[in-house]
Amino acid sequence: MTGFVPTYRRRPSPLHAARAGVATAFCAALCLVAVVHESPLVLGAALGGTVAAAAAAGVASELGRAARLVVPLALLLVAVNALTSREGETLLIRGGELLGWRLDITLEAVAYGAVAALRVTALMMALALFTAVVDPDDTLRLFRRVSYRSALTAALATRLVPVLARDAARMGDAARCRPSAPPRSGAARAALRSALDRSVDVAAALELRGYARARRPAPERRPWSRHDVRVASTAAGIAAAAIAALAAGVGAFEPYPELSMAAGGGEIALAAALLTLPLVPFAGASARLGVARA
Question: At how many degrees (to 10) do helices 226-247 and 265-276 cross?
C-alpha cells in the first residue's frame, strides 16, 4: 500500500518553502474547483494545473504513485455508472437482463461516469499534491493554539502506527513458526496488548517530561516570505476564478437526457486560468531557491 501513498520530502520549490497554511490553501483552492464544477473542460484544466504545479515543484513522481490507485478507481466509476444508470437517450449497447436488471448502456451514462471519474481524479491529485509539498509537522503546529493536546496526539499517532504494524507483522510471523499455529484472534489479541503496553509507556514518558503541565503556546510572529505571498495570491486567484465562474453560470454541463456541455469564451478563459495560475509561484526570478523573509 505504501507504493500508492505520496510522501513528503523537503525539496527546493516555492510550495515547499511557503508556510504550511499557505501551501494548504493552494491545494485547497484546486480541490475547490473539483468540488464546485462538473464541466469536463474545467475539471481537465484543474487536473492539468495540478500536475503542472507538481512537476514544477519536483513531486511529479509522488503524484504518479497516487495515480496508480486513482486510475483504477476512476475506471471503476465509469463502468459502474454505465452499467447501473438507466437514463440517457443515446443507446450504445443493448444488453440482456441480469437478475431482472436491464443492461443497456447509453452514451450519457458513460459520459456522466467519465465526468465523475475525472472529478475524483482531480480531487485526489490535489490531495496528493498536498501530501507531497506540505510538511506534516508544520501542519500540526497550526493547531497548537486551538488544541495543543490534539496536535500532540495526532503527531504520536502518525509515528506509532507504522511501529504497531511492524509489531503485528512480527507476531504473525512468530505464530506461524509454532508447531501448531494459534488462531488469528490470538495474534490479534497479542498485538492489541502490545499496543496498549506501548501507549502506557508513551504516556508515562510524556508525563515525566512535563507534558501533563503543557499550556497553550504563545503565537509565533513570523514575517511572510516572498514565497508565502506568491503562493497565497495564487490560491486566492484560483478560488476567486472558480467561484466567480460558478456564479456567472460558466462551465454548464448536463448529461441527461441528452449530453450538453458549454464550451464558449468563458469556459475557455476559465480553463486557461486554471492551467496557468498554478504555475505563477514558480515563474520569475523571485521563485529561485531561498526562503528569505520579506
Answer: 160
Question: What is the structure's pLDDT at 292?
Answer: 43
Per-residue burial over 159-190, b if 16 or more Cβ lie within 10 Å, else e, is eeeeebeebbeebbeeeeeeeeeeeeeebeeb
- Average pLDDT along the chain, 294 residues, taken 10 residues at a time: 70 89 94 92 94 92 89 89 77 67 76 91 94 85 66 69 78 79 75 79 76 65 84 94 92 82 90 93 70 42
Structure pTM? 0.74
Half-sphere exposure for 27 (CA within 13 Å, toward CB): 22
Is the backbone peptide bond immediately before 281 cis, with ω within 30 degrees of 0? no
**Residues near 281 by beta carbon (within 8 Å), at least 6 away in sequence:** 14, 15, 18, 26, 53, 227, 230, 231, 234, 287
CA distances 233 to 30, 192, 199, Å, are: 13, 48, 43
Q: What distance, in Å, lies between the first and last C-alpha atoms of the chain?
A: 41
Backbone dihedral region of 116: left (phi > 0), alpha (psi from -120 to 50 degrees) or beta? alpha
Burial class of residue 45 in the structure, from the number of CB atoms within 10 Å of its CB (0-12 exposed, 13-18 middle, 19+ buried): buried
Domain ranges of the chain: 2-139+225-287, 146-213
- SS3 of 200, please? helix
- Residue 84's Cβ-side half-sphere holds a number of Cα atoms within 13 Å equal to 8
Question: Is the alpha carbon torsion for 190, 196, 200, 205 positive or negative?
Answer: positive
**For residues 143 and 20, what is the distance between their CA atoms, to the nearest angstrom?**
11
